[in-house]
């Protein structure tokens, strides 16, 4: 009986081993649960930085290449912002972008950024109707977008309720007060906030209400530095400034803005005053494209060094012969002439 049981177990083990060998998933990840997040920045780490008075770095990015750069630089938080509506899609405001479009950006960023905490914006229209809509949208950002947290704008009672409901659903929320681009219909445009007594007090009170709702951090956009300093002092969660002066717990800028990538007059017109350009990447891109256009126009690109695929002399002769049999004499002549020219160019470039 015992020997029969041993044989049965042995057969089962062989079957399991065989199935694992057939799988294209590494053995140690099969039914292994969530992937280890040891390298990912966590909320606990952000809280520790905040407690120590260390500045938190945030960059807004929208695609795989920018996410890889943000990751490589060691930025703490990568925000997939609804500003993609303007920066990537060319709209005048953030309002047109949909949740489905945002999810595409989120997934691309999630594939490129392995270290930063990933925060996805809830776009306009994705959370205003009800707390059920807000929670459902937030769930999609995490499950379908691969984000670690969401961000929502504003501090009206309904937004505070939405933030609280999302937190209670087990999803981390970053708040956003001051200039809230999704509310430009009410604000009358992209206008700084907190520039009079009532508005300044409202910024602080709204930030505190978002903290009370469970937000782990609050973005302060386009408010005077003293107002941002007051809010930062009043809160026990980090504040992330953008056009709010140096007294916040951290700072956020848009990837394309800080790199000086966008040279188009339309984008230059809407580039915010508070943005420091740490490079002029746009000028480099324009120069490279113009050089490419010139070389293609002059037929100097591609040359031998960028035409790596060869055909042997014997095969070329056979190819020419087959073309002639097909009655394609002109094609054969063109092929022969091109081979001669490439050989001549290669000889000149090697001298």
Automatic annotation (TrEMBL):
Coiled coil: none
Catalytic reaction list: (6R)-5,10-methylene-5,6,7,8-tetrahydrofolate + 3-methyl-2-oxobutanoate + H2O = 2-dehydropantoate + (6S)-5,6,7,8-tetrahydrofolate
Protein keywords: Pantothenate biosynthesis, Transferase
One example of a Gene Ontology biological process annotation: pantothenate biosynthetic process
Entry GO MF terms: 3-methyl-2-oxobutanoate hydroxymethyltransferase activity
Gene3D superfamilies in UniProt: Phosphoenolpyruvate-binding domains (3.20.20.60)
Keyword Cytoplasm among UniProt keywords: no
Catalytic activity, EC: 2.1.2.11
General function of this protein: Catalyzes the reversible reaction in which hydroxymethyl group from 5,10-methylenetetrahydrofolate is transferred onto alpha-ketoisovalerate to form ketopantoate.
Protein family (similarity comment): Belongs to the PanB family.
Protein name: 3-methyl-2-oxobutanoate hydroxymethyltransferase
């Amino acid at each position: 009986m015992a020997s029969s049981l041993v044989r049965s177990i042995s057969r089962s083990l062989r079957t399991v081993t065989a199935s694992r060998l057939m799988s294209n998933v590494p053995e140690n990840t099969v039914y292994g649960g969530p992937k280890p997040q040891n390298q990912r920045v966590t909320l606990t780490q952000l809280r520790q930085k905040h407690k120590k008075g260390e500045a938190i770095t945030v960059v807004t990015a929208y695609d795989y290449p920018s996410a890889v750069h943000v990751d490589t630089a060691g930025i703490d938080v990568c925000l997939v912002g609804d500003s993609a509506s303007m920066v990537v899609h060319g709209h005048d405001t953030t309002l047109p972008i949909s949740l489905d479009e945002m999810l595409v950006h989120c997934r691309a960023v999630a594939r490129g950024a392995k270290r930063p905490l990933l925060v996805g914006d809830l776009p306009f229209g994705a959370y205003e109707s009800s707390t059920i809509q807000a929670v459902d949208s937030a769930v999609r950002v995490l499950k379908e977008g691969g984000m670690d947290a969401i961000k929502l704008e504003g501090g009206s009672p309904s937004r505070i309720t939405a933030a609280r409901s999302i937190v209670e659903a087990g999803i981390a929320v970053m708040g956003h007060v001051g200039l809230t681009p999704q509310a430009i219909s009410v604000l009358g445009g992209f206008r700084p906030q907190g520039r009079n007594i009532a508005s300044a007090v409202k910024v602080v009170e709204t930030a505190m209400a978002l903290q009370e709702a469970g937000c782990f951090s609050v973005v302060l956009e386009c408010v005077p530095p003293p107002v941002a300093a007051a809010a930062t002092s009043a809160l026990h969660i980090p504040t992330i400034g953008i056009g709010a002066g140096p007294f916040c717990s951290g700072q956020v800028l848009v990837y394309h803005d800080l790199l000086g990538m966008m040279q188009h007059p339309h984008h230059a017109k809407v580039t915010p005053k508070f943005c420091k350009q740490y490079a002029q990447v746009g000028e480099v891109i324009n120069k490279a494209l113009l050089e490419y256009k010139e070389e293609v126009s002059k037929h100097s690109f591609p040359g031998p060094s960028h035409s790596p695929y060869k055909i042997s002399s014997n095969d070329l002769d056979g190819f020419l012969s087959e073309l002639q049999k097909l009655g394609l004499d002109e094609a054969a002549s063109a092929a022969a002439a091109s081979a001669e020219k490439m050989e001549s160019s290669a000889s000149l470039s090697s001298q």
